[in-house]
Amino acid sequence: MRFVWDDKRFYGFAITALIVLFFLTLVQNYIRYQHHSSYSIWTSIVYLLVSILCFLPVIIGIVHLFKEVKSRWSAHYWLINLGLGLITLVIYYVISNFVLHSLGYFDAYIDSEYARYYFGREALYHLLLIGAAAIFVQYATLRKHTITAFKGRKRITLDLNLVQWMEVEGHYLNLHTISDTYVKREGISVMAKKLSTDFVRIHRKYLVNRSEITAVEKNKRDEYIILKNGKKLKVGPSFKPVQW
Asked: How much is the pTM?
């Protein structure tokens, strides 16, 4: 079975990574400072919660921000995301420093000791997660515009723009392009939900690429959609009127 990344899986990965980093750093700090009379493991736990683990909401926001960048400024995606990532780290440092100061860890709202600590280690962890988020959004965007299907026994990755319409045949979908037909084992209801932005369901058997529709034709009580190639497909009674 092919593993496919989605938002939930990426957030699960981010949570796991941050928890692992939290415990590794906690153990490292315990080994390093346990002999100091002023050391308290609870103080270390709170400190690391703020400096490492609380970055999770930031990652969720970063994913949504990167998606917006991808849709609006795709040509400058990586450059803009690099700048956003660095700005995010600085903002997170300031906010976490403020929180730790409020908890009595530092005398100043902007503490140079904490700056050395955060940008010497924690910022690297967070930057790697930001980079993973950028790669995930890039991957998810590319995957959104392709679909896998079969031609005989050969597995093909198709550009969704090439698929004119899909038609139910038993437990399979026939994906029709201008020159060929491909097969995919998928329910039409599931596919319609996945592709609701680019495809419209017009019948219990048909799912049509919105960009391929040129007109709607009525013949007495029946309604048909006309594709660019001249193909005429009947609209099911419960799917009228067709909006595309």
From this structure: 0.63
Residue 239 bridge partners (DSSP): none
Question: From CA 111, how far away is CA 101, in angstroms rounded?
Answer: 9
Q: Which residue has the tokens 């981010």?
A: 14
Helix (H, G, I), strand (E, B) or coil at 134: helix
Q: Which CATH superfamily is domain 147-239 in?
A: LytTr DNA-binding domain (2.40.50.1020)
At CA 243, angle to CA 241 and CA 244, rounded to 5? 150
CA nearest neighbour of 209 among 166, 164, 174? 164
Per-residue model confidence (pLDDT) at position 2: 46
- Centre a 10 Å sphere on the Cβ of residue 46 and count the other Cβ atoms it contains: 14
Q: CA dist 92 to 16, 24, 65, 139, Å? A: 20, 21, 16, 26
Distance CA 1, CA 187 (A): 18
Q: Tell me, what DSSP letter sits at residue 119?
A: I
For residue 164, pLDDT beyond 70: yes
Q: What is the DSSP string of 62-109?
A: HHHHHHHHHHH-GGGHHHHHHHHHHHHHHHHHHHHHHHHHHTTS-SSS
In whole angstroms, what is the distance from residue 201 CA to residue 239 CA? 7
Across the range 89-96, mean pLDDT stands at 96
Give which of 82, 98, 87 is closest to 58, Cα–Cα: 87
pLDDT band at 141 (very low <50, low <70, confident <90, very high): confident
